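quick one if you have a minute, typing this from the bus. below you get a single protein, a line of residues and a line of whole numbers that encode the local backbone shape. could you go over both lines and see whether the tokens make sense for that sequence. anything you notice is useful, everything is just below.
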Amino acid sequence: MTEKSLNLETLLSPLGVEEFFDRYWERNHLHIPGRSAAYYRPLMNAEDLEQIISNPDARYPAIQLAKSGRYFPPEAYTRNVKFGSEVFVGVPDLERIGIEYRNGASIVLPALHRSWLPLRNLCAAIETQIDHVPHGNAYITPGNAAGFTPHYDVHEVFVLQIAGKKRWSLFPPTIHLPLRSQPFTPEGYDAPTPMVQVDLSPGDLLYLPRGYIHSAETLDWYSAHVTIGISVFTWSDLIQDAGEHGIHNEELRKGLPAGFAKRTDLQCTLRQHLRELLPHRDHSDYEQLVETFVRRVRSRQSLPSRRFRIDIVAIDEQSWLQTPAKSQYRLIQEADNTILEFRGKRHCFPSELASTLRTISERSDFRVAELPANVSAEARLGLSRYLLDLGFLTPPDGTSSANSESHSSASSIICAR
């Protein structure tokens, strides 16, 4: 398995994705044991986690400590470091963290997908497939310890055991499929006998639907695992746009079908089900509700990872630019304006740019000077720079003004100095 193969299929293997959604998603827990201890190596291993924790660039809240269900105040394990007139705030104190870890505290790395590229790519791959929103945390617990008391989460949970071992106890849910507005409250909860206990070893996966009450503890092994949490868009979220609420209706707390924001057949399913949920609405309301909701979801979806480049040459009339795949955008004519729908957002352009935009959409790549001459060179260049800033246009892959055979006379946007 390579880094490129990390996606929902490989996480669930040997179980198929379709079978998972049919049998387990929002219904039952799932334990996949018996895989290689190195199964998640393309994602990370124990040494990677040690490096992240030891990194002097780390800052609170990227590293946190928890014990017995409570988080430590940051002043208990961070310090401010002065360098000249500058102060670096929230620097983790590794000595103090080590002491608390040896005394049974868990180390938590929240939102690790923001800084660890393989985890970010995995979350992006999952979001691309199901349209619900993943995030990634890491948890490291010493042997003979428990970081958190029994609780449920308001997102779907995939536990990827990276190293060591951990025993998970699962209890009956007190509420099925809670919404984000229905978090767990420990007051008055007395955990019964676990309905099942699951021991996770390296390479194992555990899936828990939101609302499943759980706790975990180590025995004579330490544990390191990554949790992929998936915040689900529900029918309740969709009907809120119509001024309706579904907090007390379990059917409305269910998630929208995976892929709902990209697949037109599923959007048809949304509209049909809305007619059953909101029979008093006009037909046009269903169309507008789905269109508005889908557009908002797509506008919030994670963008592809970008790497900052310093070898930049400002574009000019001779620069070559590349357009995205046609499946990634739409050009729509509305009255006197041309609308570009891209990454879930609508960008409005005046009618005099319509032919220029159509020319751009008809080409896989182009030189700015080749755009229609019915607008000024300044307008062509301004439009190209604007679309470049949106991420709609990019430099042709692997080309530069110095080494491109097909564009040898052009000055590309990015070239090696």
About this structure: Residues 398-417 have pLDDT under 50 and may be disordered. The CA atoms of residues 226 and 271 lie 36 Å apart. The two ends are 36 Å apart (CA to CA). DSSP finds ten helices and 18 strands in the chain.
